[in-house]
Amino acid sequence: MPFKLSAVQLFSSSANKRGNMSFNRKDLLGLENLSKDEIATIIKKAEEFKDLFTNSSNKSLDLAGKTVVNLFYEPSTRTRTSFEIASKRLSADVVSIATATSSVVKGESLVDTAKTLQAMKADIFIIRHTLAGTPHLLAKNLQASIINAGDGFHEHPTQGLLDFYTIFEKKKRIKDLKILLVGDILHSRVAKSNIWALTKFGAKIRVVGPPTLIPSKITELGVEVFYDLDRAIKDVDVINILRIQMERQQANLFPSVHEYVELYQVTKKRLEKAKSGVMIMHPGPMNRGIEISSEVADSPSAVINEQVTNGIAVRMAVLSLLAANRAKRRK
Ligand code: CP
Questions:
Q1: Is the distance from the beta carbon of residue 157 to the nearest atom of ligand 1 less than 6 Å?
Q2: Ligand 1 center to 77 CA (angstroms)
Q3: Is the pLDDT of residue 2 over 50?
Q4: Please, what's the b/e burial string for 79-103 (b: 16 or more CB within 10 A of its CB; e: otherwise)?
Q5: Which of 24, 61, 213, 294 has its Cβ near the most Cβ atoms within 10 Å?
Q6: Reduced to 3 states, what is the DSSP secondary structure of residue 128?
Q7: How confident is the prediction for the chain on average, in pLDDT?
Q8: Is 233 in contact with 271 (CB distance < 8 Å)?
Q9: Nearest C-alpha to atom 3 of ligand 1 is from which residue?
């Protein structure tokens, strides 16, 4: 009989011990400003949807008659597809805008594009953009709900939530877990969303990477900084390995890929120094042979595919909660 976790445990340090719904926002823009109760509400809902998604082919009617628009100005496999599947499982109509062939290339502004789609009765926009703050701009200018699917180096809230959910599901707690983020912290919106969510619940976060890829002010977020992977790895419960973002590297942030691999690739040999049962995560897409060896990526310690499955449950939860809030506002 598998362990049945209850996300209600996550509310234990608040007045909301019974886990009553506590997420009344119009938009999901980031995790920095969400309360513990709001995060716990999303995780509790995700737990219900995971059961529906993995154990039956039934659809929920939570978004029946609603239109969800995917507006991705950067490439994506996991996030875009996962939002599309999540929306369809909630019975929404889904439209994915091919931004490269839309009227954006004729000079239309992002806000005008979104307002045009809103005039077609779009209810929820999922936006990924290279510029930090873009989802916030849309949220201010539209009545539709906005979900941030990654804005520049800033936040990737649904990735942070699915990572949180996967850790909680496997480790049964967040408080006092030692969680190591490896690699390109500077360019990583995933790192920031992970740090903001996990530290609220008492996780002890370490970051490790070349000094040029670790922002100097990161300690202000309550994390411990390491530059030596073999030291950082000791005693941790979870290792979340970040992608080296070749497309965002300005010149010379590390001397060479070869040197990065030597110093920071997570390999089976390095994991011999880690705690037994250490869990390996990666948000994807992976650069096999750079930040992670194939042996580690395909090992039983890796939960990378489970992260992807949990992404559907978390995104169903976010969509369903936002749709319910919209319905409440209209009453
Ligand atoms: N983790 C993640 O955001 O992957 P995609 O870029 O494929 O969406």
A1: no
A2: 6
A3: no
A4: bbebbbbbbebbebbbeebebeeee
A5: 213
A6: strand
A7: 93
A8: yes
A9: 79
For 83, the token pair is 């939002």
pLDDT at 8 over 90: no
Whether residue 285 is preceded by a cis peptide bond, meaning omega within 30 degrees of 0, is yes
Instruction: Quickly tell me which residue has 């996300």 as its tokens.
Output: 7
Probe residue for ligand 1, chosen from 77, 85, 314 as the CB with the greatest number of ligand atoms within 8 Å: 77
Q: What is the DSSP letter of 59?
A: P
Name the DSSP class of 302.
B
Atom number of ligand 1 nearest to Cα 150: 3
Q: Please tell me the distance from the alpha carbon of residue 257 to that of residue 291, in angstroms, as a whole number.
A: 10
Total length of the chain: 331
pLDDT tens, position by position, 264-303: 999 999 999 899 999 999 999 999 999 999 999 999 999 9
pLDDT digits (tens, 9 = 90+) for 55-84: 988 999 999 999 999 999 999 999 999 999
Span from the CA of 79 to the centroid of ligand 1 (angstroms): 5
- Using the predicted structure, report yes or no on whether residue 22 has a pLDDT greater than 60: yes
Contact status, residue 67 vs residue 96, Cβ threshold 8 Å = no
150's torsion region: left (phi>0), alpha (psi -120 to 50) or beta? left
The token pair at 131 is: 């510029």
User: Encoding tokens for residue 103?
Assistant: 């009227």
Phi, psi of 222 (to 5 degrees): 85, 30
Q: Measured in whole angstroms, how far is the alpha carbon of residue 272 from the centre of its chain?
A: 28
Ligand 1 in contact with 159 (CB < 6 A)?
A: yes
In testing the pocket of ligand 1, which one of 72, 73, 74, 76 has its CB within 8 Å of the most ligand atoms? 76
Which residue's CA is the nearest one to ligand 1's atom 4?
78
Rounded to a whole number, what is the distance in angstroms from the first to the last CA of the chain?
Answer: 43
What whole-number distance in Å separates Cα of residue 296 and Cα of residue 314? 26
Per-residue CA distances from 276 to 177, 179, 236, 264 (Å) = 14, 14, 10, 20
